Amino acid sequence: MIVRKKLEVIDLYKSGFFYIEGCFYNDFLYSGAIDYGQVICDWSKDPAPEIGSMQISSMEDTSFLDLTLRLGQPYVNMHQGDCEYLIVFSDIRMLCPQDTQGIREYPFVTNKRLKNQTKCMLLGGWCTTVYNSEHAPEDPRFFCEQWMAYNSERALEDPSFFCKQCFRALHYNQHGNKTGNFQAFRFFDSNSVI
User: Fold this and answer.
1) Is 144:192 a contact under the CB 8 Å cutoff?
2) CA distances from residue 34 to 21, 56, 164 in whole angstroms, order as listed
3) Domain range annotation of the chain
């Protein structure tokens, strides 16, 4: 009898990073991890974007104490191929005697607003990450919506919300041409901020 290991998302997409204050902190914990930030850093060196220089560092070599943060500034965490999260540090204060004194306890999450996220209307938020692939995971991965469509002939609600994969599959043909007369906009759900 052959026992096959269940394919996990981490088996396919081992890479990840945090982007904080102009630096990509890459996760190289797993062998085969890709430096996602290198392509963007190379692009930023072109004078046309005028966004300034960017740096690359290893997440494993960086401590939270090494970071310079701005309160209220959104930063990016990306992992598992294209799963993106915005992270916002909203408060900072001096340690007092009533607080946990162990330095390894910090930072800690004070609020997660993931329960009320707007979900993809096509598959209710459970969308596969790899379409038409022999490597598609058995359990589809949760995706936040990224697109909002108005006047879509293929949607039950107006406006309607879709993850990237479902939006493309429903509103564009195999050649990438728009099908139907609708308006679409990138959508940011503030409830997806950690």
Assistant:
1) yes
2) 21, 12, 22
3) 9-105, 126-192
Which residues fall within 8 angstroms of residue 132, CB to CB, at 6 or more apart?
A: none
| 48-106 tens-digit pLDDT | 667 777 888 988 888 888 888 999 899 998 887 777 888 888 877 777 888 888 877 77
Q: Which two tokens stand for residue 27?
A: 């996760």
Give me the residues paired with residue 148 across strands. Answer: 161, 185
* Dist CA 65 CA 27 (whole Å): 17
43 neighbors 49 (Cβ within 8 angstroms): yes
pTM above 0.85, yes or no: no
Instruction: Check residue 25 and give its pLDDT.
Output: 92
102 C-beta neighbours (distance < 10 Å), count: 7
In tens, the pLDDT along 179-188 reads: 888 988 887 7
